[in-house]
Design goal:
It is a single chain. This protein is of the alpha+beta class. 56% of the residues lie in helices and 17% in strands. It has a 5-stranded antiparallel β-sheet, sandwiched between helices. The two termini are 52 Å apart.
Length: 401
């Protein structure tokens, strides 16, 4: 339950963080677009009236200026417009602005001293406003300023809607993510684990002997499936050996079990390690396409001795003849075998083709084998084979060290 809760919390935090960052970027983009749009509209309005209003200011036609300004008093989101002379005095303004429209001093300075238009967002009479000012020029001189006031409260409302919609979207996503996570954990993780636990419980209680059981083959359960299979085999073999030993004791007989063989070898060797040396290795690694496979070479020696080392452990020293053997060993040529259930160490010896032909096919097969087996074949000994045999024995002694 704690693992599931941690998984859900991690997903919720991740989704929430990504959604919050995405909403932040969206809000910034939306805010910049809306502000740019307001400034563009104000600039178009000011530029459209500049040629008409500037001569009237120079002529002092204030009544005509007031009529022109009043035409913009009822437009949507347009709070009003105002005209100022070159000294910053109000010439005309829409009624919605009152008798003294707010005109920030920094904008005045930019319009009259720097001869540049400017804009800003400000709080006018507790209302959010966008104020845009453009200098009115006539014959290379500034005769006044045209100021456009627009309501900006809708920007805040729009940004609030974005945050609200993002929150609701995240809430829905979190709900479905939590639901899907719970279903997947229950179906793909907790279910197989509970099934495995029940199977092991029945196996331990002796209710099953041995059961056919297989975990899902996904990467998540691949190692567990292999270990559970090995565990089941060991447990079943141990139970069978104990039952057989108990049965034979009733008839005064005896049974060689792996544990008994291990203790027997330990007693005979008196604590010394068991070392087996042979030309043929019990396990060989070869390339099969792009994969490396482990095979068991056919041979009576391997069949006879391999169970002994499985039971008692030790070291098997042999010629590494597989084309992928040296890709699988450590720096000292060692590898634990069998691959799926290691019990002893295989140390591989690297021999050249010349050394193999001289020591094995020559001195061993043509000399020692007929001599030791009293075969009807005359043993054949050659000096060059003996030299290669000595080289191979030195390599084997180094592996034993």
């Amino acid at each position: 339950m704690k693992m599931t809760l941690r998984l859900i919390v991690s997903l919720v935090v991740t989704v929430g963080t990504v959604a919050a960052f995405s909403a932040y970027l969206q809000v910034r983009q939306e805010r910049d677009q809306m502000r740019n749009e307001m400034e563009r509209r104000a600039r178009l309005l000011a530029e459209g009236l500049q040629e008409t209003v500037a001569p009237l200011i120079q002529q002092g036609a204030f009544e005509r200026l007031r009529k022109i300004v009043e035409r913009f008093g009822n437009r949507e989101r347009l709070a009003g417009v105002a005209l100022f002379d070159a000294k910053g005095s109000l010439l005309a303004g829409t009624k919605s602005l009152g008798t003294s429209p707010v005109f920030p001093a920094d904008l005045l300075e930019g319009v009259f001293s720097k001869n540049m238009d400017g804009s800003r967002f400000d709080l006018v009479e507790e209302k959010e406003r966008h104020i845009y000012a453009m200098p009115l020029r006539l014959e290379e001189s500034t005769v006044g300023a045209f100021v456009v006031y627009q309501g900006a409260a809708h920007i805040r409302r729009q940004l609030f809607r974005i945050y609200r919609n993002t929150f609701l979207r995240v809430l829905v996503q979190v709900f479905f993510i939590t639901l899907v996570t719970l279903v997947m954990v229950r179906w793909s993780v907790m279910g197989p684990i509970a099934k495995m636990a029940e199977w092991m419980k029945q196996l331990r209680a002796g209710e099953l002997s041995p059961p056919p059981f297989a975990l899902p083959k996904e990467d998540l359960f691949g190692p567990i499936a292999r270990e559970v299979t090995t565990f089941a085999r060991h447990l079943s073999d141990a139970k069978a050996a104990v039952e057989e030993e108990a049965r034979l004791r009733q008839t005064a007989e005896s049974l060689w079990t792996p544990d008994r063989l291990k203790e027997h070898v330990k007693a005979k060797l008196q604590g010394k390690p068991l070392v087996v040396v042979s030309n043929r290795e019990p396990y060989m690694h070869v390339h099969r396409g792009r994969k490396v496979e482990c095979i068991v070479p056919a041979g009576g020696l391997v069949t006879a001795l391999e169970p002994v080392l499985r039971a008692s452990g030790g070291t098997w020293i042999a010629h590494g003849a597989g084309d992928a053997d040296w890709e699988m060993v450590d720096a000292k040529g060692r590898i634990k075998v069998p691959p799926q259930d290691p019990h002893y160490t295989l140390r591989r010896v690297a021999l050249s083709k010349e050394e193999e032909n001289g020591y094995y096919y020559g001195f061993s097969n043509e000399g020692l084998w007929p001599l030791c087996h009293i075969a009807h074949t005359r043993p054949l000994f050659r000096a060059e084979d003996w030299a290669q045999y000595q080289v191979s024995q030195r390599k084997i002694r180094r592996r034993r060290g």
